[in-house]
Write a structure and sequence with these properties.
Elements lengths: L1 H4 L5 H11 L4 H20 L3 E2 L10 E3 L8 E8 L2 H4 L1 H18 L7 E5 L1 E6 L10 E6 L9 H11 L8 E4 L4 E6 L9 E3 L12 H12 L8 E8 L3 H4 L12 H11 L4 E9 L12 E9 L8 H9 L7 H9 L15 E4 L4 E6 H8 L5 H9 L4 H7 L2 E9 L9 E8 L12
Parallel strand pairs: 3-10, 4-9, 10-11
Antiparallel strand pairs: 1-2, 2-3, 4-8, 5-6, 7-8, 11-12, 13-14, 14-16, 15-16
């Protein structure tokens, strides 16, 4: 996509996109991927200009003929659950507490689990709530949290106690947390809150704020040009489950975007979400991930928006859901020098010729010393070793070939063919 979009990019813009996509923070990398992918898709179906000046600003995408009605300018954004889930705040607090615990027990960060409690209340009505009181629910952790002397002393005393350690709770104005000692805790799973990533107000929430910030980038767009926001799911439940929720206090993405459209001069919001064809299916056989497109337009008719469906259809099929992509980025699983993403092992045949298809990346990493025998077994081979099964039957490698699987697989196959060989088989009586 970078190569094909290159003629439309300045050197500085290409450098900026590359840096963002390669950034360790998924809140930088995933929006960068969406901006690149959507600009590339527009370039495949219509005229496109990247960062065309509009007053003092440079919106992401301009096209004079994407929609028949008029030219269109679009800002691209992506959102995760982080502003609603408190993930960053909880992880920051856990790191602070782990720093103290490590000085008492060096291995403590590998065992401590933090559950952040919640509180709820009703707030008075305001000018946006239609005269109704507002229900709110909060996770008990703030960005102002810091370790004071009283809390540090309490943690130290608790960690010096006799095993097994009982759960330990600490509460003040900035935090309410229960700390437990477990056999082992993954660094990405050491925090928890029973409160999901939800919001109770269709205006006072991070999604509405994101849309407002993008609307500001489009306020200098000349009259006669449509203003659009292209919004991508980067691990955001408000976008992944965008349709209305009935009989509950929470509001959903559909309500938030409709309220935004009704009170701002944006002509169109297009939401791109990677999901299975059937998200409710128990098994995912013949249930691929596809791009789902949700359109919110002020005056445009459905027929006028058909080119946006062409953009959706030209995008490569998503490999992951948004929340999975965010998690992979956090674990640095897209680093080209980290462990590869392996195609599954398969084999065919029996008494005659046998064939084994094995990940080419895994074979190379094993030969390079990056993948141990145990890791090769755990990640690729499984409990059954077909190479051993071939040898046990007197079959040895008779041919090896390469089978390319294309760029979307991030891997290819080495195909091993086996035939019976006298060097690995006992002598047999001749046919008389």
């Amino acid at each position: 996509m970078l190569n094909e979009l290159g003629p439309h990019l300045t050197h500085s813009k290409a450098t900026d996109l590359l840096k963002r996509i390669e950034h360790q923070d998924p809140d930088q990398s995933l929006p960068g991927e969406y901006e690149l992918a959507l600009a590339w898709a527009v370039s495949k179906v219509a005229h496109v200009e990247i960062d065309r000046p509009s007053g003092s600003r440079t919106p992401d995408i301009y096209s004079r003929n994407l929609l028949a009605a008029s030219p269109i300018v679009a800002e691209v954004a992506a959102m995760s659950d982080d502003p609603l889930s408190g993930e960053t705040l909880m992880r920051r607090a856990a790191n602070i507490m782990n720093g103290v615990a490590r000085r008492v027990r060096k291995v403590a960060p590998e065992h401590l689990h933090y559950e952040f409690l919640e509180e709820s209340e009703y707030l008075p009505a305001n000018r946006h709530s239609g005269g109704r009181t507002r229900y709110v629910r909060r996770r008990c952790i703030t960005k102002k949290f810091k370790m004071d002397a009283a809390f540090e002393g309490a943690i130290r005393s608790w960690l010096k106690g006799s095993d097994p350690l009982p759960p330990f709770r600490w509460k003040n104005e900035e935090i309410d947390v229960v700390i437990t000692w477990r056999d082992w805790v993954h660094w990405m799973g050491n925090t928890f809150s029973r409160m999901p990533a939800v919001t109770y107000d269709s205006r006072e929430n991070p999604l509405y704020e994101l849309l407002k910030s993008k609307a500001k980038q489009l306020r200098d767009v000349p009259e006669g040009t449509l203003k659009a926001i292209f919004l991508g799911d980067a691990g955001c439940s408000l976008l992944r489950e965008i349709r209305p929720i009935h009989g509950r206090r929470e509001v959903n993405g559909d309500e938030i975007i409709r309220r935004f459209i009704s009170s701002n001069d944006i002509d169109l919001v297009a939401v791109f979400v990677p999901k299975r064809t059937n998200e409710l299916a128990i098994y995912n056989h013949n249930n691929p991930r596809l791009w789902h497109l949700y359109l919110y337009a002020r005056t445009l008719r459905e027929a006028e928006l058909e080119p946006l469906a062409r953009i959706r259809d030209i995008l490569p099929a998503p490999y992951l859901h948004g929340y999975q992509a965010r998690s992979w980025h956090q674990q640095r699983m897209f680093d080209p020098q980290r462990r590869g993403h392996y195609l599954p092992l398969s084999w065919t045949g029996g008494l005659g010729k046998m064939t084994i298809r094995m990940s080419a990346r895994a074979v190379q990493e094993h030969l390079a010393g990056r993948l141990s025998n145990k890791q090769l077994k755990d990640f690729v081979m499984g409990d059954h070793n077909p190479f051993e099964a071939c040898l046990a039957r007197g079959k040895v490698i008779s041919a090896v070939r390469f089978e390319a699987k294309g760029p979307d697989s991030d891997d290819d196959y080495l195909v091993f063919e086996f035939e019976e060989d006298a060097s690995a088989s006992p002598l047999k009586s001749p046919d008389l």
